[in-house]
Predict the 3D structure of the following.
Amino acid sequence: MRHEPAVLRTRAAVRSSLRDVAPGSTVLAAVSGGADSLALAAALAHVATKLGLTAGAVIVDHGLQPASVEQAQRAAEQCRALGLAPVTVRTVAVGRAGGPEAAARAARYAALDAAGIETGAGVVLLGHTLDDQAETVLLGLARGSGARSLSGMAAVSGRYRRPFLGVRRTETRAACRALDLEAWHDPHNADPAYARVRVRREVLPALEQALGPAIVESLARSAELLRDDADALDEWADKALPDASGADGLAVSALAALPNAVRTRMLRRAAIAAGAPAGALTARHVAEMDRLVRDWHGQGPVSLPGGLVAERSYDRLLLR
């Protein structure tokens, strides 16, 4: 059973993700108890012994389900049975900022960060799959987001790695069945009140029926290409911003000479550096700042989050 194609696929994905991690290092798997994270934990347990790594798991209990404590303990037991150590369960308090999904995500990553620091783990693996990536791209598209949002989730982001971005959800479920792992089915994953659930259960199946089963892979491939583009534009903006900056603001002539995609990135960075909260600074705010650069007819200042104001004075764009 351990030679089932799905099991081998998940192991190969984790092995590839950890190929640059030095022997003796500690790696954690973030485990929810669902099929994706349990398949990840099983693959890590197998690969770690081959690579000489210490492999553990951290289970985050959000306390949002009546039986969440029991489910977290069951996930921990399965991780220990796989040979993972250390295995810890962390209970978090989920706030309300940004909505339920964003609040739960913030609490989860805070717990994972703390676990990584306490265990000395330089790498924390997340179980996001190819299907999750396609859903993320569609949600970004529906919001009218830019290239960064449409580029989906990164395979590597700081200490976090996502080995399964090329693995389908059907494969993680098959791996769990082959390894006799008991996956938990979170009721939230079937609640149509959440946009991601509607995309998963209605939008993607409709797209697959209309455009063919390869639509998930195509969306993920588009995300990868857009990520490369966004990375290049971000690097360009980072290098150009110091040349346009001065004690008396930003040089409008220098900004106007740049492509739109680079200039708007510079404006966003400048506003954040001046005190605008990144999460509250919208594309509309940046667009209004950009009008002061490329379409100025003497209009007044632009109000930005955090009590910040952007205004044009001759060839300077001032943030105060």
About this structure: The chain has two domains: 5-217, 247-319. The mean pLDDT is 92.
